Give the backbone structure.
Amino acid sequence: MTAPPLPDRFDLYEASVQSPPDMARLLRAVHGHSPTRLGEDFAGTADLTRHWVQSIPGASAVAIDLDGEALARAESIDGLQTIVGDVTLHHGHDPVDVLHAGNFSIGYLHARSDLVAYLRAAHERLNPGGVFVCDTYGGESAYVLGSVEKQIPLPHGRHCVYTWEQREADPMTGMVTDVLHFRVFDADECVLDLPDAFVYRWRLWSLPELRDAMLEAGFGGVEVYAQLPDAEDADGNVYAEPITDPDWLGDSFIVCVAARRGR
Ligand SMILES: C[S@@+](CC[C@H](N)C(=O)[O-])C[C@H]1O[C@@H](n2cnc3c(N)ncnc32)[C@H](O)[C@@H]1O
């Protein structure tokens, strides 16, 4: 019997890094008024936007990424427009209710002037009452070098060892190099080894830096949220309360930062 085909690095990224159902629930809760139109910048394989249009009645989405190979996974899906291009350049599309830049991608903007210019344009791409949401990490381990390993189950009885490595980190400039590695095992045999599958060179923006830039870019308010929504009522409505107590963040944290456009 022939073995099933091996996953590629994008399959492994989606299996290891992303949880579109959780993120979609959080984005809807943070918006708070049943948003239907999503924009995903730095979308990669657009896993989130694919889930959004396929799970929310009447939903539509636009996904933008430089990498046409990654974005090709989201082609020809009803309600989903894909744009291969640079998010910092103007891309005409209908305004969105929620605009998301996930998995620390906001760090691709290295200079504050570029960050503010991008956020200003993001503000204009939102419908009134819309939210821009990105994530970042911080705390005492933010500039520590090292690796974290996780075991991820895969189809066909395989599993993946996913390693997240912080290879370089400079607290003087805020620049970090983060690297993802994957090894796929069939039982105990390693059948695929993808070291340095993704290498990211990012500026690690702090919460106050993001807040200041967002307010300067014209947003009406900025809130910080945990990565998962807080609670669900009997009708399945999900709530997310902003974090207001710095003690909640603890020593090391990953959070979402939401900037709201006024109505
Ligand atoms: C860390 S991945 C994020 C994928 C996905 N959004 C997620 O949450 O997992 C970053 C993506 O940003 C894309 N990218 C980097 N700079 C970009 C730019 N200026 N414009 C559009 N895409 C960009 C890369 O091609 C890559 O696919």
User: Anything to note?
Assistant: The helical segments are 9-17, 20-31, 47-55, 68-71, 112-124, 207-216.
